[in-house]
Every structure is written in C-alpha cells, then in structure tokens.
Design brief:
2 helices; 2 strands; 72 residues
Length: 72
C-alpha cells in the first residue's frame, strides 16, 4: 500500500497509538507527555518534564485546544 495518502485533518475515529507516536517523533518535540493504557488496561504515564506543575499546565493547554478555545 505504498500509494496511501495520509490526510492531515481531524477525525472522529480512533487512531493507532503507533501512528500518533510516530507523528510526535516527526514533530521534533522539545517537551512531551505521554499517557495512555497498555494492552492489559494499566495506566502508562511518562513525561520529559520533571515539574508536575508544568505537566498539568500542558494538560490544560491541550484541554483548551481540544475544546476549541485555543489552537494547539
């Protein structure tokens, strides 16, 4: 399937974690927070930022973007 075109748009469909993580790698991020569930349903959390306050601030910025109040 080498002729598959990946659209850069919002979707209401779930995406594979691998695709989201690959896009994050391509974005060459300086800071990242990863949270999710593994195959057993256990919570996974990792952050490049040690300061919990900064992590919460990033979550809040993400929440605003998700709600459409601010562009990411």
């Amino acid at each position: 399937m080498s002729n598959v075109v990946e659209l850069n748009c919002q979707t209401t469909l779930d995406l594979p974690a691998e695709r989201v993580l690959m896009k994050a790698l391509e974005a060459d991020l300086d800071t990242a927070v990863v949270i999710g569930y593994d195959k057993q349903g256990d919570l996974y959390f990792a952050s490049t930022t040690a300061d919990g306050g900064n992590v919460v601030w990033l979550f809040e910025k993400g929440k605003l973007a998700l709600l459409g109040a601010e562009t990411a």
